[in-house]
Amino acid sequence: MTVLSLRKLKHWPGVIALSVCAATTAWILERLEEQNITREAVGPDEPDSYMENFVQTAMDERGRLESRLRAKRMFHFRDDTTQLLHPTLELYSDNPKAPWFARADSGWIGAGNDTVLLYGNVSVWRQNREGVREIEVQAPDLRILPKKRYAETDSATTIITPTGVTQGIGMRARLAFGLVELLKNVRTHYDEKR
Fold first, then answer.
1. Which of 23, 80, 100, 146 has the most CB atoms in a 10 Å sphere around its CB?
2. Topology of domain 49-190, per CATH?
3. Where are the domains of the chain?
4. What pTM value is reported for the model?
């Protein structure tokens, strides 16, 4: 080989490296463009993802179980809201009593997971260590603030305990303290045989 041909070969590694970089950049840009087209194809009313047999577990800052949410199906939307089919929610707290459970036909979670709305045949209960329900609250809909252990509804509500049934309109519950309050038109049927 001559000196001239060696000088020509000396530039080829740089040319090859630049060609590989250009091809890689073109490929990445094409993929990003495809992703944008896919994102734009999903409308605001259509889920951007979904899961079946969904389970979400939340722990507090000390690593203790705070809540567990399950659903037959979970649909997540671009605005960071979530819809649930047949959700169940478990809420734990420092209170030594058993956790609160909630179940409904459907549910909705707001962006940030601060608000859970439950719809259709809503049932919220706490059971003792033997698994017997100490109290059950039934309503057609319910708003839960999981971190505050708070629940409320403006709808007709029924509270069932081992000693009776209480009905009223509107309800507020401070679940961490086991306090449930009906707001108006309250009627109680006491039955010590229950």
1. 100
2. lipopolysaccharide transport protein A fold (2.60.450)
3. 3-41, 49-190
4. 0.72
Residues 42-76 pLDDT 10s: 556 788 888 999 999 988 888 888 889 999 999 99
Which pairs with CB-CB distance under 8 Å and at least 24 residues apart come from 131-137? 132/162, 133/160, 134/98, 134/161, 134/162, 135/159, 135/160, 135/161, 135/178, 135/180, 136/160, 136/161, 137/171, 137/173, 137/180
Tokens describing residue 38: 């896919």
For residue 28, what are the contacts with CB-CB under 8 A and spacing of at least 6? none
**Between these two residues, 113 and 9, which has the higher pLDDT value?**
113
Residue percentage of the chain with pLDDT more than 90: 44
Residue with tokens 């199906």: 73
